[in-house]
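Hey, I'm writing a tutorial for new members on how sequence and structure tokens pair up, and I'd like a real worked example in the thread rather than a made-up one. If someone can provide the structure for the chain below, I'll link this post from the tutorial.
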Amino acid sequence: MIVGVGIDVVDVARFKASLERTPRLKERLFTEEERKLPPLSLAARFAAKEALAKALGAPPGMRWTDAEVCKEPSGKPTLHVRGTVADVATLLGVTSWHVSLSHDGGIATAVVIAEAP
């Protein structure tokens, strides 16, 4: 059963400028592993985190770094949650995630589906 669906788009140039203007922003938004990635990948991951929040109903108090977008060896993106995000997901019965990332024409986009048994 689908518990929620979220989608988000990010203007890559604008996002990159925000990261340059506010260096600590990376630490607030991304895990240590994510921070190693280039701005285009970070923009897509930020879109995924926004989409994740929307899929969960945008509850207050979730920490950005409690969600991490990783890649399987095949390149397929996966979503790993812990802490505040995992707590909300558990309350809603979410047991699995589906995530899709894309970027083209200066825009990064992501879709997240939260699923329960």
